[in-house]
Amino acid sequence: MRQASLPSFVLPAAFFMGAFAVPTVAAAQPTDRIEAYRQFAIEHPGNANAGEQLFLSDKNLVCTNCHRITGVEKSGPNLDGIADKYSRRELIDQILRPSASIKPGYEQSIVLTTDGHTYTGRINRVQKSMIKLIDVENKLIDVQRPDIEEIRESTLSLMPDNLPFMVSPQQFSDLIAYLETLHLAVTTGFRGPDEPVEVPRIKQLVKFVPLHPEEMKFSNPVWCSGLPGAAGQLVVLEHQECKIWRLEPTTSGIVRHLFLDITGQVKYGANWGLMGIAFHPDFKTNRRYFLEHQVQTDDKIVKTAIVERQATADLLHDAGKPSRQLMGVEAPAYNHNGGCIAFGPDGMLYIGFGDGGFQNDPNGNGQNMHVALSKMLRIDVDHRDEGLEYAIPKDNPFLAARQLDPAILPEIWALGLREPWRYSFDMKTGNLWVGDVGQDKYEEVCLVRAGENHGWNVYEGYEYFSSEYHQAGSKFTPPLYAYPHSFGASVTGGHVYRGKKSPSFDGIYIFGDYETRRVWGLKEDAGRVVAVRELGEMPQHPVSFGEDDRGELYVVGYEGTIYRLDLSQSKFE
Ligand code: HEC
User: Fold this and answer.
1) Comparing C-alpha atoms, which of 546, 489, 493, 483 is closest to residue 196?
2) Distance from the alpha carbon of residue 119 to the mean position of ligand 1, in angstroms
3) Contact, 234 vs 548, CB < 8 A?
């Protein structure tokens, strides 16, 4: 998304030049040999000290050619906290079959140049004039843009798949035992630097009740919310099928109706597709609603677009008129293009963009006020300024700064977000709650207000991350809450519960983690975390939370099921 781990084998959009996938030769290692090593490592515990020596200095394994535990990253990801992320079995598979699940942002690309050279490596930086690759030997390669003939995606990891067989099965098991020791030092969440908060489970866990029968499963749903004007009905968005469904409760169970199919208008693939919907505050009378999805322009550039559409007079279907595009922002990579749009209590539309992808925010979009990426934008869809399909609200926070630097985008409301995949406004207080997906160590929950700089890529969580784009005099707003990767690796922002059914949860922010599927409740008071509780574990990957017209909550499982969040047997205490 984003997302940290939706499947993603697509090349950067900017290079979309009739590229095709490179044939996979993933079966290069004989399956029985892989199986023998796997079985041995599962059955025989290893010696972590011996494994550390192998990791650090074995001449054949060469792990440290590409990996460090912490510090400046090499061509492979840092391995700090790897044991929090993977079980022993998963670690074994990561090393025996590196190409089976490639860490997002670490895919290999193959760059062909006009003079017939081929360069293979991970794209680690994209600039206007050139791209930088980092290859197997950890060498940086610069390729000038005009020299590029084509860039092909690869489904192969940069990590060789023959490494384990350089050592004996017992030594392989030792190596895994060492990786199993690489936990992050902390096991609690944080409400400030060095201010840990315990995260106990509530006594009676919440229930995730499927809203529909198994046969009604959706194709990778990414969103669900109430449909204004149609009490009790919900809409569900399918990510790559590009359909919107309306769910209607009837006496004989839930019935689904097609609300809209816009397959032909959406550029989908990997993390691209239909991402979000927002109904105009006056939808019941003006029938206007807005979508966020990727589009591909005639010159093959992929953009994240915000479009307006209209519903039929009974509000139960899309009216079938063409979309009106309000804005389109180039999506430099398949990940971190935002995905959420929401109207605030002020009637303005808030549009969150991620840093545009790869890892580390290589182009410094986070702190760059001249680009929409990594920003929360705020626009007025009821008026139009000259040359725009919308108007700039007169009280947007950076309008004054434009007198010194006219290139600052007037739409900007806040900056420094890495990937605000899901956010929502508290129905009662109007506070904007953002789940901001983290990189190496921390996932963030942020309260975002006008003019704030949320730090990326200078800060990740409460920790200093990089000085590369740190501008003198910048003031940063820390997250409200950050949790380390021992708890999860991709936050999914949720909602503050304002339903009537479960009073002990009133005012509790309910959110989750896509990777570990855990769901938490967070209690806040005056901008400080008072308590965090684990509420339960979702049966599927929670990609989004939904709220209906009565403030009751739902959770969207990316594997296809929409769940009602049943808090009735549980108590937040
Ligand atoms: C040529 C460079 C290279 C070498 C050598 C290498 N790796 Fe990797 N490794 C990578 C890259 C790139 C990735 C990320 C892509 C992927 O997930 O396959 C990765 C991924 C991993 C992951 C998963 C990380 C995650 O967060 O998902 C683990 C664990 C790992 N390597 C361990 C090792 C160990 C142990 C060795 C030594 C036996 C090793 N690697 C050797 C490049 C390398």
Assistant:
1) 483
2) 20
3) yes
